[in-house]
Write a structure and sequence with these properties.
The complex is a heterodimer of chains A (294) and B (696).
Chain A: H1 6-11, H2 15-32, E1 41-47, H3 59-65, E2 69-74, E3 80-86, H4 100-117, E4 121-128, E5 131-138, H5 143-151, H6 162-172, E6 178-183, H7 191-197, E7 205-212, H8 214-218, E8 224-229, E9 235-239, H9 240-264, E10 268-273, H10 278-293
Chain B: E1 2-3, H1 17-24, E2 30-34, H2 37-73, E3 76-80, H3 85-89, E4 92-99, E5 107-108, E6 110-111, H4 112-126, E7 133-138, H5 152-161, H6 171-183, E8 189-196, E9 212-213, E10 219-220, E11 223-228, E12 238-248, E13 256-266, E14 271-280, E15 283-292, E16 297-305, E17 310-318, E18 328-335, E19 339-345, H7 358-364, E20 371-377, H8 378-381, E21 391-395, H9 402-413, E22 417-421, H10 428-435, E23 443-448, E24 463-466, H11 479-485, E25 491-495, E26 505-510, E27 515-522, E28 525-530, H12 547-558, E29 570-571, E30 576-578, E31 588-590, E32 596-597, E33 599-601, E34 607-609, E35 616-621, E36 633-636, H13 649-656, E37 661-663, E38 670-673, H14 675-694
Parallel strand pairs in B: 4-7, 4-8, 8-11, 11-37, 19-20, 19-21, 21-22, 22-28, 29-36
Antiparallel strand pairs in B: 1-3, 3-38, 5-6, 9-10, 12-13, 13-16, 14-15, 14-17, 17-18, 23-25, 24-26, 26-27, 27-28, 30-34, 31-32, 31-35, 33-34, 35-36
Helix pairs in contact in B: 2-14, 4-5, 7-12
């Protein structure tokens, strides 16, 4: 199965279908990858005995101890992941078939599929104007339905408050958990992103999916336009052509700051355009994580 | 500052367009909900002041473009008080070319010619003391001027002697001659001052400006200084008579003349109710009114009656305008005069149609005939005093007695015409004996060529060889000629010799070669012999359609009224070749103003007259100073010279270049065109606007 473009994906109703479709694309991509692996964790060494798989021989241990040891893995892990989806008003923007929120929910749903498939615990936290709606991480197969239901039918509303989101996650997420944030990160306060990234300091594995619309990245407007805020009452009338250069300059600086902050905090950062195939986004993301784990 | 096209300044209102667009074309912005509005707000705050400055600059540049273009099209010029040109550029040899062409006769309070003379005086006076000068009066003929000198008196004297011409001046040729004169001066600076009304006819724009040999033998162009004496007149309005055609109108009665004339209006305004009068012999005989559209032409024809016959002089005159000289045209027309003819009837008959002259009398008294016949029998007619008659017709008359012959001979030699026709009463021997000196040839015998019934002794005769080119037969063509040739002659008188023999001229002969019409000059008169009868006794000619016109024409021809003279009309400045009546010895020709005109005899009896100095009626005189009315001729202006359309300032500047200094009448102000700078400004503003638009 090939990659699904945004237009095709938009025709699929509900996060469940979209996530499943993307997941199949991801799995198909994984098969083709030379980096086959599983998200099982290393448990212990045992001395080699005939009949053991040679590919599990630990050559480093052989070099160190001059004896053959075989790596043993825990098939049942205690990996817990929390998918944090920003459902603020700005996430409702779309210039193409999918809004940023729909893309974020689809990505989160797909990852939930993948995690549950390898028997990891997955939970979801949807950040809205009213507060956070949490589904705690669980590894049960039936839990996937709960997670997908939480992601389905999200309505964007309210302002982006990364500061509150960070505090909420600090309270609810245990140390060592994997936290994946899906947001446009549009928060006027400079320290907001820093607060999110502080989760990394709590030994949480953190991944940021920066979901942006192509129009936000390219600003393709020409005529005099009255821009209206999606989160509050702000509006501004400008000749778009006249401020385009300045806007792009500002936006590039914002992206650079975000990337730099993530890199400094050793946080996975993925820029997601709403018009690109999501399976490709996830494959890129998983490949990068695998390289980091190796 | 002055403007060449001031009405184009209205276009400067276009400068308000950017303001109007700014005020009224405020397009409603398209609302667009946008997530990254914070970045838009920050960008807007960052760029606001720069964009405001850019908008103001764009508004200013666009207004400048829209103002500069109409201002440039209006051709603005700065007027700077001018010092004399010579002082501005150092000593310069100067030729003052003064237009003295026909257009300079145009009057608007003062004639342009007088204004030009005054301008030329002023130009000479404003030259520097070291500027050599000469004056070149420029007319249709140009005499090379003396070399430029420092004697101002000589220049002023030339100006005083100068007179306006009757044709358009050739300024281009005058420039060439002026350039040659400048080459003779060692002064390095060269200048031509042109004083003219600058009509289109005086300057051919396709001919290049003159150049002259400068230092190092390089061709240089002299400085051109233009002085327009018709400044302020966009056009020199003029209506004029372009053509006059006067000719006899016999259908309208005796001595009737049809005078047709064409009038043109060269102006940008209509010519209302122009009065046109026709004069004959100095008396007004017709009057009409014309209205002409701008640039329009009108034709009128008036039928008038002359009191006298013969050559009549007349004129068509329009109510005068700025150029009165072309509002009158003289003409000369040959009016058929009334002729008195004595018809001597040799064989009267109580039965009218059997009378010898029944058909002749009917022909000569037809309504359009200028001939008044008096019919007498032979005994009375031959004794009748002949002084009051132009023509005598002897129709089948017995030979006159010697006294009668003497009177007839004297009559013919004085210029009278004698028409002799044959019949049974004519005895050849007696006629030859008594009338031999008048007859073209001696008579022989009567020849019978057949009977009218066709049962006679042979075929009836017809006319065979006719001199159609002779004035007597010239009008017969087509069916008229067929009618003449169809006449049948049963009898006719033979004369000595054949058609080619000596003695008289045979104008027509029968098909057997025997002469039918013979003529001979005796003294100043003519004798015409018709060898058959004027009634139906010897032929059926009398009942042919050609009989009436031929008889009328024969009478007029004998009286000298048909003598063909060229309709002469000369043009001013040209030479005319006239061919006067051999009897009229032209000894001198005088112009309308009474000046003698040069004449030269040519080998072919022609007389070359001219050059003709002025328009009007030219009179000819014999050696005794007697007026020869038949040789008078009119001389007219060339209608093309009456078109006084002026070259506009743009054309003059394109021809002479913007460097040509243009001085208004009486001053030497220098006018500096600034429209080019405006165009450059507009172009630069346009370029700057493009740059601003390209830059975000």
């Amino acid at each position: 199965m090939g990659s699904l473009d945004a237009a095709t994906l938009a025709k699929l109703a509900g996060v469940k279908l979209r996530a499943r479709a993307v997941m199949e694309g991801v799995l198909s991509g994984l098969h083709k990858s030379p980096h086959q692996g599983q998200s099982v964790e290393f448990s212990e060494h045992k001395e080699y005995a005939p009949g053991d798989e040679l590919r599990h021989l630990d050559w480093k241990a052989f070099g160190k101890f001059d004896r053959y040891y075989v790596k043993r893995y825990e098939h049942e892990t205690n990996l817990k992941a929390t998918l944090v989806v920003d459902a603020s008003g700005s996430m409702g923007y779309r210039s193409g078939p999918l809004s940023k929120l729909e893309v974020a929910a689809t990505l989160a749903g797909t990852l939930a599929y993948l995690l549950v498939r390898q028997q990891d615990a997955v939970g979801v936290s949807v950040i809205t104007r009213a507060g956070a709606a949490d589904v705690p991480p669980r590894a049960a197969a039936g839990h996937l339905h709960t997670v997908l239901a939480a992601l389905d039918g999200l309505q964007p509303a309210g302002g982006t408050d990364l500061h509150a989101t960070a505090e909420h996650l600090a309270e609810r997420v245990r140390r060592g958990q994997l936290v994946m944030v899906f947001s446009d990160l549009f928060d006027d306060r400079d320290e907001a992103l820093t607060r999110i990234l502080a989760l990394r300091a709590r030994r949480n594995d953190l991944a940021i999916f920066h979901v942006l619309d192509p129009a936000e990245l390219e600003f393709p407007f020409d005529d005099p336009t009255l821009f209206l805020s999606l989160e509050d009452e702000r509006k501004v009338e400008v000749n778009a052509r006249e401020i385009r250069e300045s806007y792009l300059e500002e936006f590039r600086a914002f992206l650079e700051r975000t990337r730099a902050a993530c890199a400094e905090a050793d946080v996975d950062y993925a820029l997601v355009r709403t018009d690109e195939p999501l399976d490709a986004v996830l494959l890129r993301f998983l490949g990068r994580r695998q390289r980091r784990a190796a | 500052m002055t403007f060449g096209q001031p009405w184009l300044l209205l276009g400067a209102l276009a400068g308000l367009i950017p303001l109007a667009v700014h005020l009224f074309d405020r397009r409603k912005p398209r609302p667009h909900p946008f997530a990254a509005i914070a970045f838009v707000l920050r960008s807007q705050r960052r760029t606001a002041s720069r964009l405001k400055l850019k908008r103001i600059l764009l508004y200013t540049l666009r207004t400048l473009i829209l103002l500069a273009i109409p201002l440039a099209l209006a051709r603005p010029e700065l007027r700077r008080p001018g010092a004399a040109v010579s002082r501005a550029v150092g000593p310069a040899a100067t030729v003052v070319v003064v237009d003295r062409g026909l257009a300079m006769r145009w009057v608007d309070g003062q004639s342009l010619f007088e204004r030009a003379r005054s301008e030329a005086r002023s130009a000479v006076a404003t030259l520097g003391p070291e500027d050599p000068v000469t004056v070149l009066p420029c007319g249709p003929e140009v005499t090379p001027p003396t070399a430029p000198g420092l004697d101002r008196g000589e220049a002023r004297e030339v100006l005083e002697r100068m007179r306006p011409a009757w044709s358009t001046a050739d300024l281009g040729r005058c420039f060439d001659i002026a350039a040659r004169a400048l080459e003779e001066s060692p002064t390095p600076g060269k200048r031509i001052i042109v004083v003219s009304a600058f009509t289109a006819g005086s300057l051919r724009l396709e001919t290049p400006l003159p150049t002259l040999r400068g230092p190092n033998d390089r061709r240089v162009r002299p400085e051109m200084v233009l002085r327009d004496v018709a400044r302020g007149h966009k056009v020199l309005s003029n209506h004029f008579i372009a053509e006059v055609k006067a000719e006899p109108a016999p259908q309208a009665g005796a001595r009737a003349i049809q005078v047709g004339f064409t009038v043109r209006n060269v102006s940008d305004t209509p010519a209302q109710e122009i009065q046109a009068t026709v004069e004959l012999g100095g008396r007004v005989v017709g009057k009409t009114f014309l209205t002409l559209t701008p640039g329009g032409t009108a034709q009128k024809t008036l039928t008038v009656r002359s009191e006298v016959g013969g050559p009549v002089t007349g004129a068509v005159t329009l109510s005068p305008d700025g150029l009165a000289e072309d509002d009158r045209r003289d003409f000369v027309v040959q009016v058929p005069r009334e002729l008195r003819a004595l018809v001597v009837n040799g064989e009267p008959n109580p039965v009218r149609y059997r009378d010898e002259v029944f058909f002749l009398e009917a022909a000569l008294t037809a309504p359009s005939s200028p001939i008044r016949p008096v019919v007498k029998d032979a005994s009375a007619g031959l004794r009748e005093p002949l002084e009051g008659y132009d023509v005598v017709v002897l129709a089948n008359v017995p030979a006159p007695v010697p006294e009668e012959v003497a009177r007839l001979k004297a009559f013919v030699e004085r210029g009278g015409g004698l028409f002799i026709s044959m019949g049974d009463k004519v005895e050849p021997e007696a006629w030859n004996a008594r009338m031999g000196e008048l007859l073209p040839r001696p008579l022989r015998v009567v020849k019978a060529a057949g009977s009218e019934a066709g049962a006679g002794d042979g075929r009836q005769a017809k006319l065979g060889d006719v001199r159609w080119a002779d004035p007597l037969f010239a009008p017969f063509s087509g069916r008229g000629r067929e009618g003449l040739m169809g006449a049948r002659f049963q009898r006719y008188m033979l004369v000595e010799g054949g058609a080619k023999s000596e003695g008289g001229e045979v104008l027509a002969a029968f098909d057997d070669g025997a002469p039918a019409f013979l003529t001979v000059r005796r003294g100043r008169g003519r004798v015409l012999l018709f060898t058959s009868t004027l009634d139906r006794d010897w032929s059926d000619f009398a009942i042919r359609t050609s009989y009436l016109p031929l008889m009328q024409r024969a009478a007029a021809w004998l009286a000298g009224a048909l003598d063909e003279r060229e309709t002469l009309e000369g043009r001013v400045g040209q030479t005319l070749t006239m061919r006067p009546d051999p009897q009229a010895q032209v000894a001198s020709v005088k112009s309308p103003s009474g000046a003698a005109v040069a004449i030269r005899s040519e080998p072919d009896r022609g007389l070359e007259v001219g050059p003709l100095p002025e328009p009007g009626l030219y009179r000819t005189y014999d050696a005794t100073g007697q007026l020869l009315p038949a040789s008078q001729f009119p001389v007219t202006l060339d209608p093309a010279d009456s078109d006084l359309t002026r070259l506009d300032e743009g054309q003059l500047q394109a021809y002479f270049g913007e460097e040509a200094v243009r001085g208004p009448g009486g001053t030497a102000d220098r006018r500096v065109p600034i429209w080019t700078w405006l165009v450059v400004t507009a172009a630069m503003a346009f370029f700057a606007e493009g740059l601003l638009l390209r830059k975000p």
